[in-house]
Design brief:
The protein is built from 8 helices and 10 strands. By secondary structure, the chain is an alpha/beta fold. It has a single domain, classed as 3-Layer(aba) Sandwich (Rossmann fold). Helix 3 packs parallel to helix 5 and helix 5 runs parallel beside helix 6. The protein starts with 10 loop residues before the first strand and ends in a 6-residue tail after the last helix. About 40% of the residues are buried.
Amino acid sequence: MSVNPEKSTDVLLEARHLSASHGQLVAVREVSLQLRAGETVALVGSNGAGKTTLMRTLAGVHPAQGGSVWLGGDEVSARPAHQRVQQGLALVPEGRRLFADMTVRENLLLAQEHRGRLRDGGAGWTIERVVQALPALQPLMNRPAGALSGGQRQAAAIARALMTNPRVLLIDEVSLGLSPRAVDEVYQHLHDLRREAGTTLLLVEQDLGRAMAFADRVLCLREGRIVLAAAAAGLDRQLVTDAYFGVEHAT
């Protein structure tokens, strides 16, 4: 494992010229990004832009064709997904993918068995701490995951990822398939996590307005490339929309 001595210590996750393919189709093209401690970054883009492939490649679930991934200044490009989890990089995948016939509690305990050791000596995530951060889960702990609503499943999936003690939490398609009320509930959970635990987040969100309101920065992906990277505060929505759809402006 390589160590980058020039890396700023507050950069937790970095991709350098990362590329990934599906057969002959290149889905991620030379993507470089940085995520700093405590930061929330929203990744937006149209269907097929490469967002999910990028998230899966960062997490080690999908193989990279080129470039590198760094976590806390250490290169993890050659490490499989479970080892990246143990080093503090957790993915909440699209579709949640909980074990449907297991209870919420059992899903959380299973994740706990595969987590790594905390590097800073701080308190790790326990079921009690997760329930404090996500109180809506309290009455659901003994319910089968397959019996939950969409919003409840998303909250349980986030809780499961937290049980691995992540330094960086990747959440793919936060609001996909959820009712407006469920989306509000999920974002309230994320707001609480960010406020109470300082959780560092990279999330994929189709709702541009929601992404711009919640995130510190917005990255727009189009045809596998980042075509816009900007602070969310004061960002012109039309500028993001134009980047999203590839609208060219005369100079």
